Amino acid sequence: xxxVEFSGVFPQLFWMAATMRACTYQKQRRGVTLVELLAVVVLxxxxxxxxxxxxxxxxxxxxxxxxxxxxxxxGLNYAKRTAIMSGNPHALQFxxxxxxxxxxGGFQLVQLDDSLRQxxxxxxxxxxxxxxxxxxxxxxxxxxxxxxxxxxxSVTLAGPDISYQVTVQPINxxxxxxxx
Length: 180
Fold this sequence. Notes:
By secondary structure, this protein is an alpha+beta fold.
């Protein structure tokens, strides 16, 4: 009979005490602990390394080909705009690859005099990703003071699976990039 009288009081007191402890615990915790943050960073690193092993250098080389095509088109636009602003011819000059093959290793922006001789390097050198094979028939693409290209140019950037072509129109100096 004694147990029956206290059976209603104890569960009620236990529930109130547990509720008060939960409320105070929630009020005190406002941020992320360093251990939790470290665990998230480690997990992201593991997932990133698994993705690198899964997709490999081929996919990254294709991304590199697209990025290098954009970099080359931006460099050509910069050479064209610099020639217009300065009133002097400028050129995007290709740098041969380190292994001495026909492939292009990078480029730099140069200022030319009126007889198209190099005066100074304005910007660069900028190098292409090693997974990307870059080929061009010309050694430099020249723009006059009006922004016109002196010759038609085409540069091919080939990744493992995807290739891009950057072309320059001779009359208006228009620059276009397309996926092959």
